[in-house]
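FORM 12-B: Structure-to-Sequence Request
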């Protein structure tokens, strides 16, 4: 679910909040760790 939100343009904070709310609704504790990988335009064409 969190991946879907992120891929559809949600901010990191909103994605984390949504994942935590979903976990809480399901009676689970959710921890979201964000990881960013920078990619140059030159690498995209490889």
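FORM 12-B RESPONSE
SEQUENCE OUT:
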């Amino acid at each position: 679910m969190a991946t879907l939100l992120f891929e559809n343009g949600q901010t990191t904070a909103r994605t984390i909040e949504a994942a935590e709310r979903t976990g809480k609704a399901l009676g689970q504790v959710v921890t979201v760790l964000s990881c960013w990988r920078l990619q140059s335009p030159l690498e995209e064409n490889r």
